[in-house]
């Protein structure tokens, strides 16, 4: 007679509760670390301050992330993952592209600050390939450059500028107010993160997009 197969033991309520508690601890540490790295950079960030703000045991931080660098990598990975979700929709015009970039940067000041710190602390890296998620980020940028190249092929963007350079120009246009909010305040007297300023800047981007669109149409007509 065949022996009966033993049923796998079900997770106890205590184990489930512990797993949920660990997930909550990890999320709290990530959120606290995001704010800490955003405010102080990698060099200035302190583990004790992160765990205190996260109301977590330092041992749990090292359990989840192994090291301070591992924690930073996890924070940046989480931010890039969120941004990928936001960028899932493919822009079909110059304006929708600029709007998508601008709204993304304006909605996440921590991401902008972390990118700035990453540039300022470049000397701490062995080389550029030591950047967090380097290959994934390069692949994502390549796809965005391809979108711009496709818009050029469709006659929706001028062909006189290389697509990779246009990408950098568009990023510069849309990230500047959040990177230099003091310049926005000096120039306009407004908070770069306020709804009023964002509406004004978005409207200006629309006008710029219309000018580029007009120039592209004229270029296309002249080349016929």
Automatic annotation (TrEMBL):
Keywords: DNA-binding
Superkingdom of the organism of origin: Bacteria
Signal peptide range: none
DNA-binding region ranges: 46-65
Record-annotated HTH tetR-type domain positions: 23-83
Basic residues: compositionally biased ranges: 1-20
Family matches, as InterPro entries: Homeodomain-like_sf, HTH-type_TetR-like_transc_reg, HTH_TetR, NicS_C, Tet_transcr_reg_TetR-rel_C_sf
GO molecular function ontology, one term from the record: DNA binding
Annotated spans, Disordered: 1-26
Name under which the protein is recorded: HTH tetR-type domain-containing protein
Native source species: Hyphococcus luteus
Lineage: Bacteria, Pseudomonadati, Pseudomonadota, Alphaproteobacteria, Parvularculales
């Amino acid at each position: 007679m065949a022996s009966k197969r033993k049923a796998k033991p079900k997770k106890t309520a205590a184990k489930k509760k512990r797993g949920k508690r660990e997930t909550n601890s990890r999320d709290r540490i990530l959120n606290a670390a995001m704010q800490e790295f955003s405010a102080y950079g990698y060099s200035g960030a302190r583990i004790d301050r992160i765990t205190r703000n996260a109301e977590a045991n330092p041992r749990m931080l090292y359990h989840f992330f192994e090291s301070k660098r591992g924690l930073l990598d996890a924070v940046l990975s989480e931010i890039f993952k969120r941004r990928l979700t936001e960028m899932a929709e493919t822009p079909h015009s110059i304006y929708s592209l600029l709007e998508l970039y601008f709204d993304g940067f304006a909605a996440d000041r921590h991401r902008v600050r972390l990118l700035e710190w990453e540039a300022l602390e470049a000397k701490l890296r062995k080389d550029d390939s030591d950047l967090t998620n380097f290959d994934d980020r390069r692949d994502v940028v390549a796809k965005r450059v391809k979108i711009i190249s496709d818009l050029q092929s469709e006659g929706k963007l001028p062909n006189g500028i290389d697509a990779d350079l246009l990408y950098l120009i568009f990023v510069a246009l849309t990230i500047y107010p959040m990177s230099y909010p003091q310049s926005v305040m000096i120039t306009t007297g407004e908070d770069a993160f306020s709804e009023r300023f964002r509406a004004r800047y978005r409207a200006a981007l629309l006008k710029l997009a219309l000018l580029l669109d007009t120039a592209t149409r004229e270029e296309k007509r002249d080349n016929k």
